[in-house]
Each structure stands twice: as structure tokens, then as C-alpha cells.
Amino acid sequence: MLADGLHGGASRPGQRTLAHAVGRGIAALQTRSVAMLLAFVLLAASACRQDMHDQPKFIPLRESTFFADVRSARPLVEGTVARDHLRDDPLLYTGKVDGTDSTVLPFPVDSTLMARGQERFNIYCSPCHGRTGMGDGMVVRRGYRHPPSLHDPRVRDAPVGHFFDVMTNGFGAMPDYAAQVPVRDRWAIAAYIRALQFSEHATVADVPEAERGRLEKQ
What we know:
Residues 1-9 have low confidence and may be disordered.
């Protein structure tokens, strides 16, 4: 025993009691540590379940043996009526006529449309193109790639449908804005771009007589 080794003889009752108490304490501590470790392992194992990861779903176009044609993506039910996504007007939704950029807008241009186009242009386009269309927007001044001026002859000669297409699909370094700008607002911006281009090369004779007086006062 521990006490015998220390004193070289038989241990006394008090010493034996102390040794037993120490032994029981160590055993209890070890048992508690093992229990805590086991609880931690069980908790960690339960957190690693894949229920959220392995969901009963099909990724688009993935095959499925549940259907006879092995396609998880099912065709539309016969007689389904499209809502909001019919897009049956190619000019309105693509800016093209027979695959070529349109030279006309799909609806009449009025002051309301022009005001809307100016507002949307100043919000979404001017950070790069500048409010006058010169390509000197604020982000360009801070190092972003310089876009072409909207008054460049090549750009001025582009059909109005070209601007709609660029906003819809992007062009070069310019990303598309289809998610940010609705279809009709894209046309409104295209109409306003035409007004900007015209204003840069307009003369006083091009200004309506009713507006000339106000222009001369400025």
C-alpha cells in the first residue's frame, strides 16, 4: 500500500482511510471526465447529420428514375396559361425585329416616358457614363474602366434597340441590368439616351418656339 511504502511498515487505520478516499476521488474524477467526453462526442455526432444537406429534391435537369422518361423536370401541363412570362412581343422584350436591332421603340414617346428615362439613367447609368453621357462618371474617375462616350459617332449611329439590348444582355465590360431595370424602364432609358445624343448636336432652331424664350434667358 501507499502508506506502507512511505513508512516502511504497516499503515495505521487513518492512513488507510485517507488513501481510500483519495483513490475514490481519482476514480470519480476519471468517470466524470469519461462521461463528459462521451457526451461531447454524442453531441458532435448529432450535429453532423446530413438531413439538411441530403434533401429529397432534384437539381434542375438531373435524371429521375421515378418517371418513365427519366427526367426530373416535368413538362408543363397541357392547357397551362402563361402569366407575366409569356413575352409574346419580340420587339418589347428583345429590342430586335427579325433578329436586327430595332430603330423604333415599341410604344410612343412622351414627356412622361422621357422624365422616367432621365430618372433611371441618372440612377443606373450615370455612375459610369456620367449625367451627360460623356463616359466620365464618378466610378470612372476613381479608376473604373472608361466607357465610350454616348456622343461618339459610332454610338450615335447605333439603332435605339442596341441600347436596349446592351442593358438587357450586357456588352464588353458592362454587365447586364436586366435584374435591376424592368423592360419598360430600359426602353425609357434608351429614349433618353437618344435625347442626350440629340442635345449635344442640336441648334437653337431645333428648340420648339415655345421654349426658346426660356432658353435665351438662361
